[in-house]
Specification:
By secondary structure, the chain is of the alpha/beta class. The chain is 20% helix and 26% strand.
Length: 278
């Protein structure tokens, strides 16, 4: 399984000199299975660059698009994903039950005319809603994908990928609370994962002011990873106001916390355009 981050930022894209290391685009991951099947998670602004990559390779695009939810920062890039304007493209959408509504509304949101020059119905690509992961597991070329509800306004889904003996869990836009019964469910869902990619938009000192916003701080993500005996934690969904230098500082602090306790959890922060294979 190979994973590439095309967008790591939360809430809104923030290009500029302070975000060149960790990236300014919003959520989009490309997961390549051992069969070479492509699974894309979310259609934030990062998916535009992914589309350009597909175009540069001049390959037919036949992908699975899994949507965690349909808040703007997770669908903003879809109209700019160039392959959707080609008849040879097929996209199988799954995940959050309102996924197609969100993708359609990025073109036609019924709020008035003039928001986007092209209507969803005018797309040449074949975009289908599979709608399986909201009710149970799904298998793609031998890789089992499970989902779990997220604690986020209007809801959402986290995903677990199991390919042979490797497990990847992706949970963004999720507010962890150790006192809530859902925390035990998340521990079970992440149990023994090789890699956990989890929302860590806030610092511990910031979380009290943002309760109910549907995001976590890095300490909560670490607590989940330790209780679930995860091997590696990747901090994700960086706050738009968080600069590269601040993310570096927070990441080192997290690593020091683990080292001081003599624990073995690996921790890093997601970087746009970075790739890992496991």
């Amino acid at each position: 399984m190979k994973v590439k981050f095309w967008g790591t930022r939360g809430s809104t894209p923030v290009p500029g000199k302070d975000t060149v290391i960790y990236g300014g685009n919003t959520t989009c991951l490309e997961i390549t299975l051992s069969s070479d099947a492509k699974v894309i998670v979310d259609a934030g602004t990062g998916i535009r660059s992914l589309g350009n990559e597909f175009e540069s390779r001049k390959e037919k695009v036949d992908i699975h698009l899994l949507m965690t939810h349909i808040h703007w920062d997770h669908i903003l890039g879809f109209p700019f994903f160039f392959p959707i304007y080609k008849a040879s493209t097929r996209i199988l959408v799954d995940g959050y039950d309102l996924s197609m509504k969100g993708l359609r509304f990025s073109f036609d949101n019924k709020m008035g005319d003039g928001f986007f020059p092209i209507r969803f119905e005018e797309l040449k690509s074949d975009v289908q809603f599979v709608n399986k992961l909201g009710t149970g597991p799904r298998e793609i070329d031998g890789t089992r994908i499970d989902s779990i509800p997220l604690r986020h306004p209007q809801g959402g889904l986290g995903f677990r990928f199991r390919e042979e003996d490797k497990t990847l869990v992706f949970m963004t836009d999720n507010e962890l609370d150790t006192a809530d019964t859902s925390f035990k469910d998340y521990v079970s869902f992440c149990e023994g994962a090789d890699i956990l990619i989890h929302d860590s938009q806030y610092l511990p000192a910031e979380i009290a002011k943002h309760r109910g916003w549907g995001h976590s701080d890095y300490q909560s993500a670490i607590d989940l990873a330790l209780k679930a005996r995860v091997k590696k934690l990747i901090l994700f969904h960086h706050a738009p106001e968080r600069s590269d230098s601040e993310i570096i500082k927070a990441t080192i602090h997290c690593q020091d916390l683990i080292s001081e306790k003599g624990l073995s959890l690996e921790i890093e922060s997601a970087k746009e355009n970075s790739i890992f294979t496991f």
